[in-house]
Design goal:
Elements (H helix, E strand, L loop, with lengths): L6 E12 L3 E9 L2 E8 H7 L6 E6 L10
Antiparallel strand pairs: 1-2, 1-4, 2-3
Length: 69
């Protein structure tokens, strides 16, 4: 697979929580960091996502915000 997005984080799916229409997929990318993606239940089914499966979080955003307390 080739993709133009530069922010590609390889990891392992550690949890999938399905809601009425949307699933939250948690991907452990190492170093104690976990990325959560909100995707449709249909996408989870089509990709046959499962806990323990290798996956990549691909982040495409026009803005990155920084905040502090």
């Amino acid at each position: 697979m080739k993709i133009s997005a530069r922010n590609q984080l390889k990891g392992t799916i550690i949890d999938i929580q399905k809601g009425a229409t949307t699933s939250h997929v948690r991907i452990d990318i190492g170093g104690g960091a976990v990325v959560t993606a909100a995707i449709t239940n249909e996408a989870v089914d089509e990709l046959k996502l499962a806990k323990g499966q290798a996956a990549m979080a691909v982040i495409k955003a026009s803005d990155v915000l920084v905040a502090i307390d």
